[in-house]
Design goal:
The chain is α+β, with helices and mostly antiparallel strands and about 160 residues long. About 50% of the residues lie in helices and about 20% in strands. The protein is built from four helices and five strands.
């Protein structure tokens, strides 16, 4: 154990690379890319490269640079990472009715209407953004469900 500590005391860049790798593994495996350790890992990697090249030396400067780079990378990359994480549009699975194509029984407008499904007449209204009423006998697609009210759009 003492030899490992001696090795890392002699080779600060290798210690920084090891800390970066462990931080990244914990971030990916445990935290699920939520962010904080990702920035710390990135700053340890950059500092390790600068130590390897010989641009900085001394543990005080290395610790300071890791802190400054962690803060700077968090400021610069937080918003893009959050936008990336939230960019995936997930389909609405709140009801198994969504996506079904149903027969319109009475004309569907913003205020009233009904569709037939499984022998039952369901109340229906036009979904947001739909402007044209749907005539009886036509088919409509369920876009959302609000309680027992189906929000539909024309096919």
């Amino acid at each position: 154990m003492q030899s490992i500590m001696d090795y890392f005391a002699q080779h600060h860049d290798q210690l920084l690379y090891t800390i970066a790798a462990i931080s990244l593994l914990v971030e990916l495996g445990v935290l699920g890319m939520s962010g904080p350790l990702l920035f710390f890992s990135l700053s340890c990697l950059i500092t390790g490269v600068l130590v390897s090249v010989g641009l900085i030396s001394g543990w005080e400067m290395e610790v300071l640079l890791v802190g400054v780079l962690s803060f700077a990378s968090a400021i610069l990359l937080w918003k893009p990472f959050k936008n990336y994480q939230n960019s995936k549009e997930t389909p609405n699975t709140s009801s198994d009715m969504i996506g079904r194509q149903l027969l319109v029984k009475t004309a569907v407008s913003q205020d009233a209407g009904s569709v037939a499904y499984s022998g039952i007449e369901w109340q229906a209204r036009l979904a947001a953004g739909a402007t044209a009423n749907i005539a009886p006998g036509a088919h409509a697609e369920v876009v959302a469900v609000d309680g027992s009210l189906l929000l539909v759009k024309a096919l």
